[in-house]
Amino acid sequence: MNDRPNILFIFSDQHTRKIAGCYGDEIVRTPNLDRLSRSGVTFDNAYTASPLCVPARMALLTGRYPFAQRCWTNSDALASDAPTFAHALGRAGYEVTLIGRLHAIGPDQLHGYSRREVGDHSTNWIGGTAHSLGVLDRTNEPFRVSIERAGAGQSAYQLKDRDVMASALEYLDELALRRDGGETRPFAMTVGLMLPHQPYVARAADFAAYEGKVAPPSYSPLDESAEHPYVRDWRRFTGTDVVDAAETARARAAYYGLVTEMDEYIGQILDALEAHGLHETTLVIYTSDHGDQLGERGLWWKQAFYEEAIGIPLIMSYPTLLPRGQRRAQVVNLIDLAPTMIEAAGADPLPFGESRSLWPLAQDSAAPWLDETFAEYCTDGMSRWTLPDPVRQRMVRKGPWKLVYYDGLRPQLFNLEQDPGELNDLAEDSAHAEVRSELVERVLEDWSPEGIADQMARRRAEKEYLGAWARETDPAETYRWDFKMEDNWLNAT
User: Fold this and answer.
1) Residue 67: CA atoms inside 13 Å, Cβ hemisphere, count?
2) 0.70 exceeded by the pTM?
3) Computed from CA positions of residues 335, 336, 341, 346, in that sequence, does the dihedral angle turn out positive or negative?
4) What is d(CA 24, CA 215) in angstroms, rounded to the nearest whole number?
5) CB 424 within 8 A of CB 400
6) Rounded-to-integer distance, Cα 237 and Cα 239, Å
7) Which CATH entry fits the domain spanning 6-490: 1.10.760.10, 3.40.50.150, 2.40.128.20, 3.40.720.10?
8) Using one digit for the tens of pLDDT, what is the confidence trace for 47-71?
9) Quick check: helix, strand or coil at residue 29?
10) Do residues 52 and 303 touch, judged by C-beta distance below 8 A?
11) Strand 311-317 relative to strand 41-47: parallel, antiparallel, unpaired?
12) How far apart (Å, rounded) are the C-alpha atoms in residues 444 and 411?
């Protein structure tokens, strides 16, 4: 039992795969992610299960795609009796602790964790009391104001991550003392960070370090006649059909600054792990729930299936069993981390799941692996920032091919080997009709847009009912960080 690894799982929010030194960005400063990459295995084709926070996070916990655990939107609650990797690790004798962001809705704010420090900044409840960003109001959501009000300053998200980092360091100090006292029980600690999620507002020094140095987006918006109808409607709805170069540069520089700030916090946690002599016996995993498009093709935030939105960084380091400085090109998914941690811990697998353990692949690049994965994005029209008409969308990545299925609209089809920028949509090309047909069939094999529409409509009625209850009764927030409106500001320019 004592030879099992400890697990340190660092989970950020909205960090797109390519903006890290270890993923080839020559401008951004991420020395700590880079050293983690040098000490372990870096996955070059990792994807989220959904380009939206809650469904991605609940998919990670359960090792199941959103349709299988019925969490599609940010107001969908995961069932309390749904087994998670935290349940599996606790069942196997681990001390399972969460510090920081979970972003679960509903009365269960643990989902298998036995201890939690520093809760979410947002309400635990559908219809609960919302937080206020003050002068940065709505900049955390997909509204154009988040690009307009970007630059040097401070958001409460940054302060929250500082508290998360401080709590993680305190916990490692506590663990070290207990080990000095003879305790041998392995730990599994999740550190949930908010950064680099917008607001695109960075510390003054970090913003200054990148101002005028970050390149503009690599890909321009397509001509409106060639643009996919969903993409066109989304840009119009969010008011981002025209964003000038100065606004784009300011927001991108701030995002780079937030990535550097996040990396700094990760470095402090890794340093503490090493100072306490725990690094040789700890599996460290870093990833994010989804990416951010940052103006590529005229798009921002997530809510789409381009690589910038669904491509996530994934690094695993464990000196005892994993090789150092290696990369994996295989197509993998966020949901695969649940069985990975469970297998590494020698725990019993979850009873159901579509995910596959990355543990053999991390150890050996030649391990058998099917290069296929999925992601989905479905809405119910409840949120103020979604299109008023619900959407049901699913992506399949199979080898070099990516197909995006839009219920009621034409699909998109890209060959990522030949067209990494996803500029040449082949869905209407007769030469690729067979590939399109095969991938559409694969998308719909176990996924019914009609069935999902029906489930989400019924669930919306339930959520509206529960929201009215919460607004009337103001239920207690069991795990919530103290969010202060006055902690948000933008420096004068």
Assistant:
1) 22
2) yes
3) positive
4) 14
5) no
6) 6
7) 3.40.720.10
8) 999 999 999 999 999 999 999 999 9
9) coil
10) yes
11) antiparallel
12) 13
